[in-house]
Amino acid sequence: MLVDSHCHLDLLKLEQEPLSAVLDEAREAGIEHMLCVSVSLERFPAMLQLIEPYPQVSASVGVHPDGIDVEDPDESRLLELADHPRIVAIGETGLDYYRTEGNTEWQRERFRRHIRAARAANKPLIVHTREARDDTLRILQEERAAEVGGVLHCFTEDWDMARAAMDLNFRISFSGIVTFKNALQIKEVAQKMPADLMLVETDSPYLTPVPKGGKSNRPAYVRYVAEHIAELRNQTLAQVAERTTENFYQLFSGARTN
Questions:
Q1: How far apart, in whole angstroms, are the C-alpha atoms of residue 174 and residue 248?
Q2: Partners of 89 in the β-ladder
């Protein structure tokens, strides 16, 4: 069985297909659990309500670093929302300089608040980082994020950053990007990764893996990510599935009781 460690079920086109059908498809593909990741507090109540009937789905709470005209929470607000049995992580949070112009100090300050909230709640972090390598690693270290650990999701950096993140008690999660023909740097990291620090994800509805390109991504497709990693590592799908699933439950321990 597999776990989709990072998806956005509330961003799927559910007016075209009910969530129950999406989850049935995932179960048939061997996906036993999914982590639905928060991107804004405005969407959070509806997201939580959406997944409530489905015990195979856990959730996080946080504000994506791209969010500008959104509620920017303080630590107490994040802690209040994290105090729910279905919330197993803080995030996604982090830094994204790719889409942001001008002064980015507000992003760094928001990231710090999320880390402090995670430490106070004793829940792991889900970190998004893009074109912000040095600042991401520096802030994780300065804010003692290693105390709770977490995951660098949808990893797109090189082996040196992966190793630095792992030294800070962070796992590395691979999305459909690893299946792309030109993603040589990411494939190298997937080959070198210690088996006990690796996760797989879809980031659905984005980043649809080969061979499903052109379609909206969905949790069932995490199987293709795992299959490609198994090929890169000269392992079986069953080996990658077993290890990444156990890694998920070790990191997001609250998901075991959902």
A1: 13
A2: 60
CATH of the domain at 131: 3.20.20.140
| Helices 237-251 and 222-232: angle between axes, nearest 10 degrees | 110
Burial 192-231, CB ≥16 within 10 A → b, else e: ebeeebbbbbbbbbebbbeeeeeeebbbbbbbbbbbbbbe
Instruction: Count up the domains in the chain and report the number.
Output: 1
Q: What is the separation, in whole angstroms, between the first and last Cα of the chain?
A: 16
Structure tokens at 172: 């590395």
Backbone angles phi, psi at 172, to 5 degrees: -120, 130
Q: Residue 246: what residue type?
A: E
How far is residue 84's CA from residue 68's CA, in Å, rounded to a whole number?
26
Determine whether 26 is exposed, middle or buried from the number of CB atoms within 10 Å of its CB (0-12, 13-18, 19+). Answer: buried
Other CB atoms within 10 Å distance of the CB of residue 253: 12
- Is pLDDT of 258 > 70? no
Q: How far apart are CA 141 and CA 227, in angstroms?
A: 33
> How many CA atoms within 13 Å lie on the side-chain side of 249?
14
Q: Is 229 helix (H, G, I), strand (E, B) or coil?
A: helix
Identity of residue 121: A
- Residue 231's Cβ-side half-sphere holds a number of Cα atoms within 13 Å equal to 9
Looking at residue 256, its pLDDT comes to 81
- Give the range of the structural domain holding residue 11, as residue numbers without chain letter: 2-257
Q: What percent of the chain has pLDDT over 90?
A: 93
Task: Taking residues 100-127, report their average pLDDT.
Answer: 95
- Take residue 232 and report the two structure tokens written for it: 């890169």
Using alpha carbons, select from 39, 33, 60 the residue that is nearest to residue 48. 60
For the record, the structure tokens of 237 come out as 């799908």
Single pTM value for the model = 0.97
Q: Which residues, at least 6 apart from 141, have a Cβ–Cβ distance to it below 8 Å?
A: 168
